[in-house]
Amino acid sequence: MRLRKTKYILLLGFVSFFLSCDKKRVFDQYAKLNGTWNHKDTISFTFEQKDTVSPYNLFLNIRDNADYPFNNLFVIVTMENPDNEIKTDTLEYAMANPDGSLLGEGFTDIKENKLWYQENFVFKKAGNYKVSVTHALRETGSITGLENLPGITDVGFRIEKTN
User: Computed from CA positions of residues 71, 42, 124, 22, in that sequence, does the dihedral angle turn out positive or negative?
Assistant: First the structure.
């Protein structure tokens, strides 16, 4: 019985060690989707930023699976600062290789994509910020956007310290 308890404590220690090794992380949050991202679903992340001097790298994190049928992803990202000023960007990311295999990290059919949003970004004012993300994907030749985007399981936002 004592040996089992010791193994459990060691395992817990290793897990804690590896989770705490992410020293660059300032903010990292995900919104879970049910495998489909509806164009009306705006994913929002709110965070407080006090540092107005240091640069940070900002990322969108997208988890997708084999149900994702496209080679790329278009998103609209808005960032609202503490003065209620809004900056909007339309971004395109490659999500698959030319052969159709998904890009990203992961050993299962779910791949995680860490996508650049802003590099060396300096927050100009301390306070609460809000980042919102919607997909803006269209099928080739279509004027209207895609109602439901299959294969997206999670959408995340991450802030990292720069080196």
Answer: negative
